[in-house]
Amino acid sequence: MANTGTIYLVGAGPGDPDLLTLRAARLIEGAQLIVHDGLVDPAILDLARADATLISVAKRRSKHTLPQEDICALLVREALAGHDVIRLKGGDPLIFGRGGEEAEAARAAGVPVEIVPGISAANGAAAAAQIALTHRDAASIVSFVAGQCKGLSDQDWAGLAGKGRTLVIYMGVKTAGQIADKLMADGLSPDMPVAVIENGARPEMRVLRGLLAGLPDLVEHEGVVSPALIVIGEVTARADAHLAATAMEAAQ
Hints:
Blueprint: E1 7-11, H1 22-30, E2 33-36, H2 42-45, E3 53-56, E4 59-60, E5 63-64, H3 68-80, E6 85-89, H4 99-108, E7 113-116, H5 121-128, E8 139-146, E9 164-170, H6 176-185, E10 193-198, E11 206-211, H7 215-221, E12 228-232, H8 241-251
Parallel strand pairs: 1-6, 1-7, 2-3, 2-6, 8-9
Antiparallel strand pairs: 4-5, 9-12, 10-11, 10-12
Helix pairs in contact: 3-4, 6-7
């Protein structure tokens, strides 16, 4: 299939265009067709050429522009028509980005696929909040968990958080109460430090800190909305407290 285009699964990072890889920026700038997530910052889309076609497949909780199967079909269809397709995703394509599913669909259809990694939401937000996800004195293990997955209460999270460990929860705003209850039921101390990073690595970023037992109230009282990450572990207590306080004051 000599006329088949290539699907590029590109990580757009946490939002700041300065955090794009050079490879990602060059692909965006030269693209004729970009299929992008809703969390991709408009400033990144502004890098595209004026005549590029931009297709949004935004996903919000329980509200998807297109089901995942239809997104895969769209990518394959355009590539088989001879078009190179930039599939632009927030963060990294292979960390809760469904990039694996889209790569599998491309390979099954005989379409060339390239994966361009991006700075993950966890890495970008933690760096902006000055939270070291690992620290020789506090954490040598990091776990990433999706907080909106089905059967949350049935999963075994014992060992994911605690002394010497950091737990980063994606998509956990709506289930913060369940997450806190589950972790405490699995043996984690109610006094374990936590941080909530809203709009990480963006100008409107907020960093909110507290304890595990107060996580649900913190999220509700501060009106936290997605995109936001929840970081649980001793490393959050070592972060720049002034940064967190300043972010909270700016939001009030």
